[in-house]
Amino acid sequence: MKHSGRKGLPGGIRFAAIVGLVLSILTGWAALMEAVEMVNFYEARSLRMEQELPRIPGAPALDAKTLEVYYAALEPMREPRAVLLGLLAVACAFVSVSAARMLNPEHLPRDAMRRVLSRAAIIAAGLRTIDGAQMSVAKQRLFAALAEPMSKMPEFPPDITVEASREILSAMGAGSAIFGTVVVAGTFAFLGQYFRSQGVREAVAVQDGPQEE
Length: 213
Fold this sequence. Notes:
By secondary structure, the protein is mainly α. It has eight helices and two strands, in the order βααααααααβ.
């Protein structure tokens, strides 16, 4: 099949494709790395415990006991989470490849890439939403576990009980997971809807030009 009349993409479509490409690469790589960690859960947990633990700004340094709470929350879901993250990585791969081909189609029709990009982005949005729900549970427990060590810090307000602090930190943990989910999954969902819109369809059809057998 012969395609003619190829021109540069309109600015809005090009920008959306670049956003999809960058977001899918970052999200897919992170999902793949965590999927591998879930498959090798116990080995990864032991290795993390032996390393220098990360520190949350404004909070006491994490100790092995606190981090164990986080892994205890993930342990029951490690197998389904590994599958979920693997599927998310695959969906992101489809988004990244189709977005790259939207920018540089070579001999492929852009409309075919547009359809793949739209569907894969919507699937990625759904998978990332489930991922966010799982992480919300784990982060709630991790942040709540910080309440007791934080209560021993000199700057801890004396009028706040450990239980109240635990509830506040738990909400903050859930909030941080929800915020990340809204940003990433929301962007994927927007891209999915954008690339299936009538305006983008018509613009891409013009880019592909007339087709001849």
